[in-house]
UniProtKB/TrEMBL annotation:
One of its GO terms (molecular function) is monooxygenase activity. Keywords: Heme, Iron, Metal-binding, Monooxygenase, Oxidoreductase. CDD domains: CYP107-like. PROSITE patterns: CYTOCHROME_P450 (PS00086). This is Uncharacterized protein. InterPro entries: Cyt_P450, Cyt_P450_B, Cyt_P450_CS, Cyt_P450_sf. It comes from Prauserella marina.
Amino acid sequence: MKLPEEPVPLHGPEYKRDPYPLYTAMRDKCPVHRVGFPSGVDAWLVTGYDAAHATLNDRRLGKNHALGNDGWRALASIMPEPQHSQLQVHLLHQDPPKHTTMRKLVLDAFAPRRVGALRGRFQEIADGLVAEFPADGPFDLVALFAAKFPFLVLAETIGLPPALAKEFRREWGKVVAPVGPKDPRRPEYERLLHELQTYIAAVTADKRASGGDDLLAGLVDAHEAGILSKEELDSMIFQLLVAGQEPVTNQITTMLVALLRHPAHLARLRADPELLPRAVEELLRYDSAFELTTWRFFREGDELHGRAVPAGDSIIVSLCAANRDPERFPNPDDLDFDRSPNSHLAFGHGIHFCPGAALARTELQIALATLLDRLPAFRLAIPDAELQWVPAVLGRGVSSLPVITD
């Protein structure tokens, strides 16, 4: 593939359907490229595994939006005030020591031992959802399962009361997608943003009144103790509700699409359930739902893998491109359930490694096992080429997955 003049555009239906040929061409040329997004934002994209691993651990780089230069802030920091200041100071946008303090507040809730203790409850949730599947006719696995299961699991894990969980609307997650001030969708974007803020206020009020030993109650207690500001409290709840479940929804869809495209692998997984944990790791590597990381910045202009990057320019790592690097993974475009070792970067690396990785792995294992058990034979109800890939800047997944059972 011949690369266009810089910046390389990272958007459009063909790119979202299959970004891997472009990533291969970029990675083969050099590890860092100037890229452009639909909002007009340019960034430096890191593609190779070694370069990605080093960048994710690079102490010269910061995540705080205050490090972005004027050009970046004009196009990327487009959430209006006061919401930007109130909802954008969560873990993904913090550096030590604040990041260290905030991260400690959530680690216990997502610790492997606690996730393991809740596994039975998660299975009950999955069983309840598949019991609602229609007996025949095409149905959408996103609408009936993938969009519901991760949120219900998250609500159970963080202590979101059932009554409030029922009121949460998935469309509020759209507030993380770039919608500029002049975009005709801006009024709808701001409406969703205000509704989500109102919902977060209701969650904090409920936890302040009822208390408890769950994560949400602990965050409210941390605010009362002066550990978190009001803006940090709201931002962390915002991050949990939005970033805590949508990537798992998308990952379920990328895994199912990969299995439907590889029927021999699907048959093998049905025949050997013990293969499931290894299969999940390979499916995470093969097509990660968290395609690109969020922004990083140099405090001062510096060199990054051979490229001079000005201070305040945004730097993004392509986890998908890193996970298909042949220097790290032999035959990287092959789906291989026997791949070992499999040190993929689907959950990132370093101090910003996803704190919910153990929960996500458990959800994905339960989701696949339950769906394969409930659907002993299923296929796409539409041609593969008609699948609609979500146009999200950072993530991969399909917006619907209509299937037919045989």
